[in-house]
Specification:
alpha/beta, 5 helices, globular, binds cytidine-5'-triphosphate
């Protein structure tokens, strides 16, 4: 079985999130998603997520293309997470292009283009205005 792993916050779930998960799943048979904990999201994005960790996980787990979720507690632990999950392919959005090439000794590393013109931040700003 070929296992794919990807990571993200997936707050205020939107079409860009759905598309990257659908495209990721095509690289194998089983998709594991490392979901940023609320604490990590605050560190990474400078604000707490709108949806809690457990809400974000519930939405992801309801998707046909997602097989498993787990908490991503630190940005620096990708190697451990890939090994613990025996993942063969790491998929990241191309906003991270080149940043994970050093993991190519344990898995394939693929960067996928982001869906244009949509992001959680843009949605929050649109609602706020
Ligand atoms: N993603 C994507 N296309 C978008 C937005 C996100 O492919 N338009 C991907 C990211 O590249 C990442 C995953 O979805 O692999 C989760 O991204 P996340 O940071 O949770 O979502 P954003 O919408 O980028 O959030 P924010 O605006 O808060 O940075």
């Amino acid at each position: 079985m070929k296992k794919i792993i990807t990571f993200g916050t997936f707050d205020v779930f939107h079409l860009g999130h759905l598309r990257i998960l659908e495209r990721s799943r095509k690289f194998g048979d089983y998709l594991v998603v490392g979901v940023s904990t609320d604490e990590m999201s605050i560190d990474k994005k400078g604000r707490p997520p709108i949806y809690s960790f457990s809400e974000r996980c519930s939405i992801l787990m309801a998707l046909e293309v997602v097989d498993e979720v787990f908490p991503e507690e630190s940005l620096e632990q990708k190697r451990e997470y890939i090994e613990e999950n025996s993942a063969n392919v790491l998929v990241m959005g191309d906003d991270w292009k080149g940043k994970f090439d050093h993991l190519q000794d344990i898995c394939s590393v693929i960067y996928l283009p982001r869906t244009p013109a949509i992001s959680t931040t843009a949605i929050i700003e649109k609602i706020r205005d």
